[in-house]
Amino acid sequence: MRYQERLLGMHDFMLLVDTAFSFLSFKPRREDLVTIFKNMDTNHTGFISYSKFFDFVSNHMTGR
Fold this sequence. Notes:
This protein is mainly alpha-helical. The chain has one domain: Orthogonal Bundle (Recoverin, domain 1). The chain contains three helices and two strands. The chain has a two-stranded antiparallel sheet. Helix 1 packs across helix 2 (30-40). It starts with 6 loop residues before the first strand and ends with a helix.
């Protein structure tokens, strides 16, 4: 993580998604998370913003 810049790398993204979905007894497939992360990493830096992460969790936990 690059905390000061509010950016997440793929490893941290996967860890946070696993944690966010764990209470639902659901574990997303690693391959799916890699694909999702790469789609969100539009500038191909290997990082995504916190806001993109929160949008992802919000959209997928509410079924949007």
